[in-house]
Every structure is written in structure tokens, then in C-alpha cells.
Amino acid sequence: MLSPEIIKKIKKIHIKTGRIVNTMMAGQYKSVFRGSGIEFEEVREYSPGDEVKNIDWKVSARMGRPYIKVYREERELIVMLLVDMSASGQFGTTENLKMETAAEIASILAFNAIRNNDKVGAILFTDRVEKYIPPKKGSSHVWRVIKEMFTFKPEYKGTDIQNAVGYLGRVCRKKTVSFLISDFLSQDYLRQLRLASKKHELISVLLSDPGEFSLPEAGILALEDFETGEHFYLDASDEETRRKFNAMKTREYRNSLETLKSADIDCIEIDTAGSVADALKRYFHYREKRKR
């Protein structure tokens, strides 16, 4: 049974994201993401004016009169949300934890997709895939996806992006628009991103928190790595220690950006102190401009 606090959070994000989609992002998602290609629908008898190139010669020979193949444009999209549920998502120095920001991002994307009559699915992962929600349509399905974001308790703490993206390739045979939402504190995932982007349209969402990049001037600090459980101590009163810490964290972040750039996939940068809606709107606008 869900606690009153969780129910309150789910309702809040449902109302908030629904309002964002209906006002701030009306039409943007639809103009940016469209189904592609054509899909065979039926064979029917030839009528004057039909394209000769569409004649199905085998059926025509069997029936003794011309028949043509009829195709329809494939408009429906499959949107997959790959969400990092590792322990580092429990970090946050602003109003929201990184995991709560990830849930808001996923909710806005899911609402946009459902409003456009697209299917939405999710892969929740740590250092292994822990939950797969097959893509479906409908507002009740979006509710399920959002609820899972807030209530799912992962068994493991680490992050393995390579494994999560590989799993996407195995369960989704058709092309998808897939959003990979993570802080990208993982190793050796470049090759898998390149492979996946040949089949799927892969878009990364790089999460961060302002507090990750600096130490408070607070004397000796006991720090813990959320994912490995490793403990270490730093003298935060020392200016050089603070400078080195900032440089290390900035370098890690830039390395993630460079890896994503090398994989030739789009990256949306979002931190817990900023507006998720504004960041997504900027990206949608950028995509619209790029298509012209």
C-alpha cells in the first residue's frame, strides 16, 4: 500500500506535468517527433489512377486481374524511458533529489507521448536491469510509469549504462525514440551507445546537482560514495582541497559530455536547481530549428 507521502508526490507531479504539457509544450513534441516510414496494410483490386509500381504481381496472377499493395504512413512512435535508479540518485542539495528530478523528466516526456497517441515504455536500471515496463498507450499506463518511479526499490546500487542500453536493443525490435536519463556515473558505455543509435533514436539526459561540484567550508568531512559504500575523509577547510575536489567533479562531468558527443547522440543537461520544463522546451526548440 502506498504511503500518504508517496501518493501526495505522485499527484503533485501528475498535476504539474499535465499542466506543463497542456500549456508550455503544446504542439512542440508532436512537431519534433514523428513516426517514420510506411507500413503494409492490405491488398485490394486495382482502380484507374493507382500507381502501377504498387501492383502485386503474384496476387494479380493468381486472381486473374490486377491487385495493388496498399501502404499507410506509420505515425505511431514508441517512446522508451531508460531511467537510472542507482543510489547516486538519492543525492540532492536543492528542493529535489536527482531521482525526483528524473521522475519529473520522465513524466513530462511520457505525458507528451501519450497526448500524441504514442506508446510509452520504461527500463529502470542500476548495475543491471531491474524493471521492464513494456510500451503501451493510455493515461492509466502513464500513471503506472510515474508510480514505479516513486515506489520502486532497487536491489542494487551501482550503474551499468552499457547493460541497460544493450537490453533496449534486445526487447525493442522496432525503432524507438529512447531517452536515457542518468548522471552517467558509469564506465565503458560508448560502444554500446553507438550500436544502439544505429537502430534507435537515442537521446541522453545528463542529470546533476550543484552540490556535487563543491565542498562546504566545514572542516573535516566524512563522505560516502552512495553506489560503492566507500567512506573517505576530506579537510574542507583547506582551500586547495576544495579546489581539487571541484576540478575532479567538473572533469568527470565534462568527460560524460565528451563521451555522449563521441557517440553522436543529443544531450539535454538538467540540474536539480533548474527548471525541467525549460530545459526540455529549449531542446525541442533546438530540434525544430535543426529540422528546417
- Summed up, the domain count is 2
Order of helices and strands: HHEHEEHEEHHEHEEEHEH
The CATH architecture of the largest domain can be named as 3-Layer(aba) Sandwich
* SS class: alpha/beta
For the largest beta-sheet, the strand count, sense and barrel status come to:
6 strands, mixed
Oligomer: single chain
How would the global form be characterised? elongated
Which residues form runs of ≥5 with pLDDT under 50?
none
Percent range for β-strand residues: 15-25%
Tell me the number of helical segments per DSSP (H or I, 4 or more residues long): 9
CATH class of the largest domain: Alpha Beta
CATH H-level superfamily of the largest domain:
von Willebrand factor, type A domain
Q: How does this model look, in words?
A:
There is one protein chain. The mean pLDDT is 88. Strand 4 and strand 5 form a beta hairpin. The radius of gyration is 23 Å and the shape is elongated. It has helices at residues 4-22, 28-32, 57-63, 98-115, 139-151, 161-171, 190-199, 239-262, 276-291; strands at 38-45, 67-73, 78-84, 119-125, 129-136, 177-182, 201-208, 220-224, 231-235, 266-271. It has 292 residues and is an alpha/beta fold. The chain has 2 domains: 4-32 and 76-291, Rossmann fold (3-Layer(aba) Sandwich); 38-73, no CATH class. Helix 1 crosses helix 4. 42% of the residues lie in helices and 23% in strands. The chain has a 6-stranded mixed sheet with strand order 5-4-3-6-7-10, with helices on both faces. It is built from 9 helices and 10 strands.
